[in-house]
């Protein structure tokens, strides 16, 4: 009874506030908000006010990675991101951006114990572009792309985008071309602070290996190029931010450009979240260009084709309409047979004292992506007759499997390490750091190849960090701060303490859904 009374009073309060400032507000659960393709989850539905979309402030600021200061005495919020400071006050149709006044079409307000703020005004203040798709009921926020020497010349080719969106099934978004040719994709956005933590790990590995050339590559997924305009990702912005945080010891790879210039080819599986063998070859060519490594022409290879391939997206969507859609047009798995002689062995440990089995690069007995490197083993070593004395270590997850099969053409020794399989993770308790491994088996080059979910997922980023430094822990994310100028409270020097009886609006972080784990 008490809970019902409180809800009634809250609803009445919202009505009174709205009436006082001359607007009407109503929740619209059909509206979704996406930042760089990734969906922002809200525990209070977006509300429409004077044809403007209002969302819970904590969720939108957290999605950007902004820090927040809540002034309870005047019911205002100050938030800072990337050098831009925003000040908003409940019931006030004026917003301050770095101290400059900006008029709002409607004032922020409180509903369901959440402070709601105008999503367009916030996003544009942070330098983003905002688009509205009336048919899909989607607010798309597109972050600006930082200047970056590697990516500056990449202009995304939109000619190959699919035309229709068929919905999300167990986290897999499915698109079609005029009702056919269904394509499963994941829509992820890399938050800046996660990218910065990832760059710190890569820089740390490079610093520990002063005599090794270090390369870093973040491959965009299919949604960057093939999703409809409303649902497209913006990895270029995220990757540019990461690359700008890399030290001079690390050479970044332009995998965005490598994919973008080959969009008319079969780069990604439609029923699987990985790139194809050819897609990995395009990335391999970019690596060889940066590393000055020799590479063969595709014309030198014999090709094997495995038909009727249904991959990870097909498995993830089982029991849904999405599974049926993907099954209408299975993939082809086009494999390029090795042209060098090699031997391979997998191990549980970095000292090579616990062998697992002899390995082959392409095992056609598998009917899935495990055809590449026979799946995910902790450590694999391939020795070839390339006879150039060159060696490379690759730190990867499954995206690196197809890629690594090409390296036998350029190196005499290739070490392939799955960061998810060591340091108490996976099936082995053996420890591994890149520096310790180098001391046992010196190598010339190091490549950290990271599919975006490696960077997004806190647990995977933690595992990667443990490859750099034993006992590594992800830095704690700071979300609260005290601005230099506390608007409306000139004499205050500290934020007011939180009341145990009356929780502050939106001070509990909203849960975020980043994607699927593979």
Can you describe this structure?
- Strand 16 (172-177) and strand 17 (180-185) form a beta hairpin.
- The chain has 518 residues and is an alpha+beta fold.
- Helix 4 packs across helix 6 and helix 4 runs parallel beside helix 14 (458-468).
- The strands form 6 sheets. It has an 8-stranded mixed β-sheet with strand order 19-18-27-25-26-24-22-23, sandwiched between helices.
- The longest helix has 20 residues, at 2-21.
- The radius of gyration is 25 Å and the shape is globular.
Mean pLDDT: 89
Shape: globular
How much strand? 25-35%
Overall SS class: alpha+beta
| Rg, Å, rounded | 25 Å
How is the largest sheet built, in terms of strand order?
19-18-27-25-26-24-22-23
Compact description:
This protein is of the alpha+beta class. Helix content is 25%, strand content 25%. Residues 1-23 and 490-518 have low confidence and may be disordered.
How would you describe this structure in keywords?
518 residues, alpha+beta, 8-stranded mixed β-sheet, 5-stranded antiparallel β-sheet, 14 helices, 27 strands, disordered N terminus
């Amino acid at each position: 009874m008490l809970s019902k009374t409180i809800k009634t009073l809250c609803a009445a309060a919202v009505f009174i506030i709205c009436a006082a400032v001359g607007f009407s507000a109503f929740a619209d659960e059909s509206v979704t908000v996406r930042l760089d393709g990734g969906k922002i989850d809200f525990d209070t539905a977006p509300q429409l006010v004077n044809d403007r979309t209002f969302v819970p402030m904590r969720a939108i600021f957290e999605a950007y990675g902004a820090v927040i200061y809540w002034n309870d005495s005047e019911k205002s919020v100050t938030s800072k991101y990337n050098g831009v400071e925003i000040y908003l006050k409940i019931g006030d149709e004026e917003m301050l951006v770095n101290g400059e006044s900006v008029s709002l079409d409607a004032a922020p307000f409180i509903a369901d114990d959440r402070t709601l703020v105008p999503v367009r005004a916030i996003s544009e203040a942070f330098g983003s572009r905002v688009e509205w798709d009336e048919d899909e009921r989607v607010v798309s926020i597109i972050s600006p792309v930082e200047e970056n020497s590697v990516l500056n010349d990449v202009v995304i080719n939109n000619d190959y985008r699919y035309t229709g969106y068929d919905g999300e099934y167990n986290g897999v978004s499915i698109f079609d071309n005029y009702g056919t040719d269904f394509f499963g994709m994941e829509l992820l956005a890399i938050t800046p602070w996660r990218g910065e933590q990832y760059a710190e790990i890569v820089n740390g590995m490079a610093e520990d290996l002063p005599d090794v050339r270090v390369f870093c590559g973040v491959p965009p997924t299919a949604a960057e190029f093939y999703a409809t305009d409303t649902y497209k990702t913006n990895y270029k912005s995220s990757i540019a931010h990461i690359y700008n945080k890399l030290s001079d010891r690390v050479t970044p790879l332009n995998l965005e450009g490598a994919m973008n210039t080959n969009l008319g080819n079969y780069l990604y599986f439609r029923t699987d979240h990985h790139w194809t063998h050819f897609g990995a070859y395009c990335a391999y060519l970019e690596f060889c260009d940066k590393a000055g490594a020799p590479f063969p022409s595709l014309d030198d290879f014999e090709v094997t084709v495995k038909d009727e391939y249904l991959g990870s997206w097909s498995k993830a969507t089982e029991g849904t309409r999405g599974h049926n859609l993907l099954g209408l047009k299975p993939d082809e798995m086009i494999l390029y047979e090795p042209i060098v002689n090699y031997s391979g062995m997998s191990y549980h440990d970095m000292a090579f004292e616990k062998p697992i089995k002899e390995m082959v690069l392409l095992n056609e007995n598998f009917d899935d992506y495990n055809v590449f490197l026979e799946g995910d083993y902790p450590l694999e070593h391939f020795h070839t007759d390339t006879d150039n004395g060159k060696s490379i270590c690759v730190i990867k997850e499954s995206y690196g499997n197809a890629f690594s099969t090409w390296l036998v053409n350029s190196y005499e020794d290739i070490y392939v390490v799955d960061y998810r399989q060591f340091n108490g993770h996976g099936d082995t308790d053996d420890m591994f750091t890149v520096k310790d491994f180098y001391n046992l088996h010196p190598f010339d080059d190091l490549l950290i190849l990271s599919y975006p979910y490696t960077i997004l997922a806190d647990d995977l980023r933690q595992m990667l960090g443990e490859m750099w430094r034993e006992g590594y822990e992800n830095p704690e994310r700071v979300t609260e701060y005290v601005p230099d100028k506390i608007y409306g409270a000139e004499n205050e020097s500290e934020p007011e303490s939180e009341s145990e009886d009356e929780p502050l609006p939106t001070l509990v972080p909203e849960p975020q859904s980043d994607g699927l784990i593979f």
